[in-house]
Amino acid sequence: MRILLELYWIFFKVGLFTFGGGYTMLPLLQKEVVEKKKWLTSEEIIDFYTLSQCTPGIIAVNVSTYIGFKKKRFWGGIISALGVATPSIIVITVIAAVLTNFLHIKEVAYAFTGIRVAVTALVIVTIVDMYKKSVVDWLCIILYIASFLLSVLTSISPVFIVLGAGITGLVLGTRMRERKGDNDDIS
Amino acid sequence: MIYLELFWEFFKMGLFSVGGGLATIPFLYDIGRRYDWLDTAVIPDMIAISESTPGPIGINMATYTGYTAAGIFGALIASLAIILPSAIIVLLISGFLASFGRDKRVLNTMYGLRPASLGLITAAAFMLFKVSVITYDAFVESGNILDIIDIKALVLFVCLLVIRLFFRKIHPILFIVFAGAIGIIFNF
Questions:
Q1: Residue A65: which of B63, B82, B112, B178 has the closest Cα?
Q2: CB B121 to CB A17 under 8 A?
Q3: pLDDT tens readout for residues B71-101
Q4: pTM of the model
């Protein structure tokens, strides 16, 4: 029960300070779940993001549910998903009800410009950290650059990018991974 | 029955939008065309607010649409409906991984997926950078090459990046609050 409350509170905080899409949660999750609670490793966070990108639904909810399940099975997943959604429900309801001109308040616009810059810097530093852990050989470098370029330069759905990389891994993974004696698991 | 319609539409959206909150936009326009409780003219405003307020974009949009269509109860129903398919599918996959996470094929697939996933996150960060630091429109308008980047934002960006790289212990929430305050003080 205590852990469920903790999960709810952590994901509530994460939801409250997420500005933008599910990716912007990454530095917060790294801090709360990996560094403070030590419930997961950063490799596992990448794995959950990876799975969330190919799982239907909102990435933020998917990641939260994966982490919650990992920690406390069924109810952990449910509670975490509800936790990450609660701030949205409260904040947006208030904005829609009383602050319809919210974005036209000068100070609000200024604050959000600053916040966007901070979120960008935070996400970039987290990417640098994760790069060292998930891009481990030349095939990974190719997959990394290819998916970045495909995503920035074309309008191909991320689903196909992820599918292509998954199939590449399935076909070539054994040869590449045995070479460096890798034996991690994601269960 | 508007609550049932809301539930059904957002459940479908949660089930079929793959790859992030912005993937829900086409669904919103489709809903606007089919029901009279959502006016497509307000969708751009909704997206702007959902992107910049606290909370993941996808859930924000569901709450916003639900509220506009049917008040607080509508907001609750739409938000829960968009979460539900994710939660169910993820719970099923998690159960599967708990049994097959050590399977060689799963490990090989994950090995290939990880760098691609990070590539997609990097692409998202690149877009974020473009939105927050680069002001291409102002450059096109004025023709002055100095207008292509927002100098104030760039300075803040570099400072935060350096601070972050050297002081890993600082909580990300502090960065966000600090940057918001800087934005107000220096009129970003």
A1: B82
A2: no
A3: 999 999 999 999 999 899 999 999 988 888 7
A4: 0.85
